[in-house]
Design brief:
alpha+beta, seven-stranded mixed beta sheet, two-stranded antiparallel sheet, binds adenosine-5'-triphosphate
Length: 379
């Protein structure tokens, strides 16, 4: 389709960046970035006539995106960027594919597919670096212009198991030691951390972040945890879960620090506080705790917090949490106020006391099903 449009309209169109990188790595990628030498929005409108997806146009940025089936296709006009000062947002100017590629971060992301000519464009030996599994920048000022690239380098290196090229490694160290991380806005920093949490190899990425001395710059004295950080959970919010694992060792001061520095959504801060509080209460849990006590300890605790606490080395705690998750957390009454009325009692505050008693009996395992609940009600 792209080729047909290019032929008919004489527009030059290129597939660029991550999709091409992942194509050569044999990795499925549903994000397709297209660069047009010319008007990207016009091209997007024509393309969408063929594929009939959902088109969104961003006039301000002169870009468009189409969602079709599982794919997200981003279409932009070729542009070059320059930075007025370190870590500034770039000044953008429209240009050709050559300049558009030159503004990109690493050689492995600097590959493009020229649709009309059915050819790979590889000005910076990206294919060779893909083969040799290397992350490399082409510009000595790259990390100074945009220090988010430091995080991006770590992310790609961890994700694909690529080595950071020696010179690139030195440039990262120079940028970190030169204090350039601090020039980034806190929003951009925390955004990169959340991107880390989405990866499969978050542990390796965080480890290398620590080894570059970045942790101190962004989290001060907070001690990060990487144990089980790559694990997933069956239900719930995986990113929240991993966030809690990352900050598993946090204390009140640490939470205060995060709160003051980063614009974190409330659910993250609240879950962190819940984690800290629950961890402090764990010392009261004993092997012989009864079900009611366990239920009441955990009933208001988020699933992600419980799963995070489950990385604890304490066998008793693990056993109790698993018991709660598997056997107690889903318990619900099947009888209700109507059943009490049918049993002959007039409505009143006593209803909630009765229901609570039946519920407790269920949590204690004394009754299991609807009939047994009804029987207890009649008693
Ligand atoms: P993935 O989404 O799989 O992490 P991607 O390569 O698609 O990888 P995006 O963040 O979507 O990554 O960026 C698209 C492309 O834009 C990249 O391939 C890269 O060429 C370029 N790019 C993104 N951020 C930067 C940056 N900070 N500096 C230079 N180029 C960048």
């Amino acid at each position: 389709i792209l080729k047909e449009i290019c032929r008919k309209t004489n527009i030059k169109c290129y597939i660029v960046g991550g999709f091409i990188r992942d194509f050569f790595l044999g990795v499925k990628n549903y994000d397709i970035d297209i660069t047009i030498e010319g008007n990207g929005i016009e091209f997007a409108k024509i393309l969408n006539k063929y594929i009939n997806g959902t088109l969104k146009v961003y006039d301000k940025f002169k870009t468009a995106s189409i969602t079709a089936e599982n794919y997200i296709i981003d279409i932009a006009s070729a542009r070059c960027e320059y930075y007025k000062y370190p870590a500034a947002l770039p000044v953008v100017k429209f240009s050709d594919i050559k300049e558009d590629i030159a503004r990109r971060d690493f050689t492995i992301n600097m590959l493009a597919y020229d649709v009309l000519n059915d050819a790979i464009i590889d000005y910076y030996n990206g294919l060779k670096d893909l083969q040799n599994k290397v992350i490399r920048v082409i510009n000595d000022k790259s990390f100074i212009d945009d220090p988010t690239r430091i995080f991006r380098a770590l992310r790609y290196s961890g994700r694909y198991g690529f080595k950071i090229d020696d010179k690139t490694d030195i440039l990262i160290k120079k940028a970190v030691n030169g204090g350039f991380i601090k020039k980034l806005s806190n929003d951009r920093i925390i955004n990169e951390i959340f991107l880390f949490l989405k990866e499969n190899k978050t542990d390796l990425i965080i480890e290398s972040m620590i080894s570059y001395g970045i942790q101190k710059e962004i989290f001060d004295n907070i001690k990060l945890n990487i144990k089980k950080i790559n694990s997933t959970i069956n239900n719930g919010d995986i990113i929240l879960y991993r966030f809690l694992l990352l900050f598993y060792n946090i204390d009140d001061k640490g939470i205060e620090y995060l709160l003051n520095r980063y614009n974190l959504r409330r659910k993250y801060i609240e879950a962190l506080k819940e984690l800290l509080l629950t961890k402090n209460n764990l010392c009261f849990l004993k092997d012989n705790c009864d079900n009611i006590y366990i239920y009441n300890t955990f009933k208001n605790i988020k699933y992600e917090v419980l799963m995070a606490i489950n990385i604890s080395e304490d066998v008793t705690i693990k056993k109790i949490i698993n018991h709660y998750i598997n056997h107690l957390s889903h318990i619900k009454l099947t009888v209700n106020g109507n059943d009490i009325r049918n049993a002959g009692l007039n409505p009143g505050p006593v209803y909630s006391i009765i229901l609570q008693k039946i519920f407790n009996a269920k949590v204690q395992g004394k009754i299991k099903n609807h009939d047994e609940e009804l029987n207890l009600l009649k008693l």
